[in-house]
Specification:
Elements (H helix, E strand, L loop, with lengths): L1 H10 L6 H7 L10 H11 L11 H20 L3 E4 L7 H4 L7 E6 L2 H4 L3 E5 L6 H16 L3 E4 L5 H11 L4 E4 L13 H9 L3 E4 L9 H13 L3 E4 L7 H11 L3 E5 L7 H11 L5 E3 L2 H11 L16
Parallel strand pairs: 3-4, 3-7, 4-5, 5-6, 7-8, 8-9
Antiparallel strand pairs: 1-2, 2-6
Helix pairs in contact: 1-4, 3-4, 7-8, 10-11
Length: about 325
């Protein structure tokens, strides 16, 4: 509980963000969680870490109160917490730039720590083809025993989750907001279903945090980091999905995208077209290209339960 309360207190302080907290956590930590001890810890490091704002004891005590309120709410709401100071915090998250320092989750923790995961992402305004392919891919990877990671958004994301659940797989929804402030609200039932079928909801924000534009982008870096690779179903070149694809490239993840014919509106797939120009990306045209992706994601997979399954690209 020390780790959680310390980090929540630090993050509750005005102008203390996770970048500063990451730096502070590399220093010798305070011996206790008493206000004086935390205040001394911050003051001692303020000359070394230039971005630390000027704080007083009143700020520290308010931060401690906020931390305890969050802890109390999480306990009542069955929301679990892990921090970067914990031994079981995923290495795949500590290895990225701008790594998270705390995670709130509800459901099966194995969905976060299991390395056999793949992200399936795409447009909120999915075409009928995008909806079907998202469901097919979610089902396919569930049957291949992968955790399916997505963002619970409308369109491609929700259908990837649904496809995975339909095949009795486990899926991880990474949220751009607090777990108790579901976005979109219309997917509340899907969120409940994800948990009840052995999946998990995950956020780096306190339970009642509201979504904001930059948090959608921040969420996308985690979707990529939590996965062996990212599969883009369909998206425009300026869509949020392209942020996830770019994070995947930056994080040296496997990246794949679905191939479409010219009958679709180019605006809907301009992102796919751009990704296809990356020589390292895998273009999903048929079942054999999907098999290649699975092989690259996990060389230990010997039997593909859907080797004859045809996807409608």
């Amino acid at each position: 509980m020390y780790n959680v309360e310390l980090i929540l207190t630090l993050l509750s302080l005005d102008k203390i963000n996770r970048n500063i907290v990451n730096k502070l956590l590399k220093e010798k930590l305070p011996l206790t969680l008493e206000g004086e001890s935390i205040y001394k810890f911050i003051c001692e490091n303020s000359t070394k870490i230039k971005s630390i704002p000027t704080l007083d004891m009143k700020d520290i005590l308010q931060g401690k109160r906020n931390a305890k309120l969050i802890l109390s709410y999480c306990e009542m709401s069955n929301i679990s917490i892990m921090t970067i100071l914990d031994k079981d915090f995923p290495n795949k998250l500590t290895a990225i730039d701008d790594n998270p320092v705390i995670l709130f989750y509800k459901g099966n923790k194995d969905c976060i720590t299991n390395n056999k995961s793949v992200a399936i992402v795409g447009s909120r305004y999915a075409t009928s083809s995008g909806v079907k392919i998202s469901q097919d891919l979610g089902k396919y990877f569930a049957l291949c025993d992968f955790i399916v990671v997505s963002g619970l958004a409308k369109g491609c994301d929700e259908n990837a989750h649904l496809g995975c659940i339909s095949a009795h797989g486990k899926t991880l929804a990474v949220l751009p907001c607090g777990i108790s402030n579901m976005y979109p609200l219309s997917n509340t039932n899907l969120a409940d279903k994800i948990i009840s079928t052995g999946g998990c909801l995950l956020s780096e924000y306190p339970p009642h945090n509201k979504p904001s534009k930059y948090q959608f982008i921040e969420r996308n870096r985690l979707q990529s980091a939590l996965s062996l690779g990212v599969v883009v179903v369909e998206c425009g070149e300026k869509s949020g999905t392209m942020h996830t694809a770019n994070f995947a490239i930056k994080q040296n993840k496997i990246i794949a995208c679905c191939n479409y014919d010219s009958t679709l509106n180019l605006e809907n797939i301009s992102g796919n077209i751009k990704i296809k120009k990356n020589n390292k990306s895998i273009i999903l045209k048929d079942s054999s290209s999907l098999d290649l992706l699975v092989s690259n994601l996990n060389k230990s997979i010997l039997n593909n339960p859907l080797e004859n399954h045809q996807l409608c690209f």
